[in-house]
Design goal:
By secondary structure, the protein is mostly helical. It has one domain. The protein is 69% helix and 4% strand. Helix 1 (7-26) runs antiparallel to helix 2 (29-45). The relative contact order is 0.16.
Amino acid sequence: MDEDVSHRLIEQRLRNRMIEAIGVLARGNEGLIEFKYNEFFLKFYDLWDEGRLIVWPNSAFTEEEEDAINALGRMLDDIMEETLHFQSEAEYLRSGCPKRVPGALRARP
């Protein structure tokens, strides 16, 4: 099967994956426990790097969504920097960092 896939379809699939990644982060401690430390973050970082979406521009995202994702990414960068020395999910849970993500997501207009 030799079909061309439209750029819009690819962009929409990436948007869907980002929504799934944010859904994991939004679960806070539960997301961390279910997906473990690395996957908790990497689902997001698979799609966001160097301060923006990896496929940019991406017409499937609204400007507001992109702004919210970039703000979340900056916050996650700060959390990652803060927790680099952690050796286990238990340390991360005790730090309260997973709970910061859902709070930040709810605070977005």
